């Protein structure tokens, strides 16, 4: 349908790039940040606009876990807190949870903190759910108040579910790639 055949790949960045160099693959999609960090900037041939190719929910976010009872440590770590990132990731993860989809499901989401109505903060949340073969693609977006990212994620998931997202997610759990040894992981319960 799209003129190419996706292949599962394994290995580190150099191994994946070698698959293109030696002709086993025509191309490989990798994180630009990782390529730049590893000094492979000359091998970046195209950068996908995240609004056109939505990332996985929570993609690129980092979290630090610590003992909640250690109040001094919690206070020290607050300097690393990014309130906008927390709001965005909360909305994206709420969407994923409401869809009952796992990390391998064909779901993309991107939340951004934006100026809201009346000068307050809002959240713009875009999402996509696709059939494994790309023949069916559902897209939806909503804007809501920044003080309820979980509610916004759930509302957007409800719209996608009304459009048939559950069926697409279910289909993704039964797809077996010809060169794969096993099924993709089951849908989260």
Describe, in plain words, how this protein is organized in 3D.
It is a single chain. This protein has about 190 residues and is of the alpha+beta class. The chain folds into two domains: about 1-45, no CATH class; about 70-170, Double Stranded RNA Binding Domain, CATH 3.30.160. The chain is about 30% helix and about 15% strand. The chain is built from six helices and three strands; from the N terminus they run ααααβββαα. The chain has helices spanning about 15-20, 30-35, 70-75, 85-100, 150-160, 165-170, and strands spanning about 105-115, 120-130, 135-145.
How are the elements arranged and paired?
Layout: H1 13-21, H2 32-37, H3 71-77, H4 83-98, E1 107-115, E2 121-130, E3 137-145, H5 149-162, H6 165-172
